[in-house]
Amino acid sequence: MGSSPGSSFPQRLREALESSVHNTSTLGAKLGLSRQTISAYLTGARVPKEPTLRALAEVLRVSDQWLMGKDVPRARLDPADILAAPGLGTAPALQKKPLFSMQDPALPVPEFCPCDVTLLCPDDSMQNERLRKGDMLYIRLTPHIENDQLAAVQVGNTVLIRRWYRKGSAILLQSGHPAFPPLLFSGDERDGLRPIGIVTGFTARFD
């Protein structure tokens, strides 16, 4: 993520600070920064580097992407809260995976894969991605999903795996199987859509 905070950063920082338990002094002390530095961030006179921005977001309990001005939910993703979604499980501290899929020995599977949570693939909707029902999926939690990324999303009480596309103000979820039609969320319908994260890898089910 090489982009820098946009012009909305000072406004969002002020909003997050006002709704937190901190003031400029206590926030600065928490991060090892001076009160003057925090004030400069609030006025836009200074822009924090990425590690500092991430630290600000963590202390203020907001999404770092939201703090940067992105069109994502303000709330910071909490793994404990996410795990309430059906089918999600905790990620192993270090998940070692087989070198090859037994279904397709030509398809290498990474030995290690960064993830925050795991999910058993709920259906065969992404067969074109070589994902089958029962495969173990590895998911990195993030509310910021780019076009064409393979994402885990919660719709109502169901977790789906779909390709994510933004169409103006609407979100399109595209499957990889004709039996699973695309889903379009626009207007108030977006309130029922909760991005969970990006699928970073999988371990194939062994039959």
What are the key terms here?
207 residues, alpha+beta, 6 helices, 8 strands
Provide an overview of this structure.
The protein is of the alpha+beta class and 207 residues long. The protein has helices at residues 9-18, 24-31, 35-43, 50-60, 64-67, 79-82; strands at residues 88-90, 117-120, 136-141, 149-155, 158-167, 170-174, 183-185, 193-203. It has an eight-stranded antiparallel sheet with strand order 1-2-3-8-4-5-6-7, with no helix packed on it. The radius of gyration is 20 Å and the shape is elongated. The relative contact order is 0.13. Mean pLDDT is 80; it is low at 93-110.
List the helices and strands and how they pair.
Elements: H1 9-18, H2 24-31, H3 35-43, H4 50-60, H5 64-67, H6 79-82, E1 88-90, E2 117-120, E3 136-141, E4 149-155, E5 158-167, E6 170-174, E7 183-185, E8 193-203
Antiparallel strand pairs: 1-2, 2-3, 3-8, 4-5, 4-8, 5-6, 6-7
Helix pairs in contact: 2-3
